[in-house]
């Protein structure tokens, strides 16, 4: 079931976030640090108190998490838009491939629609083909592409 994250979820959420961090560190050790605290406790506290984190709970254990926020964009050359930006979405490795990520996205979509947002946005690591497949199947399309030239 999906519910708002609670302060006592910290250890389980951090463990899931560290799994994903370590995937990123494996793909890009020149960019990402392995074995680090991803969500410092005070930041997690802010997310919980601000209602910006949801968890998927199964049999009394946290199996997935999504962290999101409303984002306003616009300015002199861009149209004003309000979106729900997904900062992080992660599913415990033992529970992947069972639809939990899709259910978390469904809940984010419902929240975005209730708040009058025009859509969902997120970023994904180019090496994370499994996540990209999920997002494409869900209906996400590319908005921009980050490129780099390393020396």
UniProtKB/TrEMBL annotation:
Pfam families assigned: Acetyltransf_1
UniProt domain N-acetyltransferase: residue ranges: 1-151
Gene3D superfamilies associated with the record: 3.40.630.30
Q: Name one GO molecular function term.
A: acyltransferase activity, transferring groups other than amino-acyl groups
InterPro entries to which the protein is assigned, alphabetical: Acyl_CoA_acyltransferase (IPR016181), GNAT_dom (IPR000182), MshD_Acetyltransferase (IPR050276)
Q: What is this protein called?
A: GNAT family N-acetyltransferase
Q: What is the lineage of its organism?
A: Bacteria, Bacillati, Bacillota, Clostridia, Eubacteriales
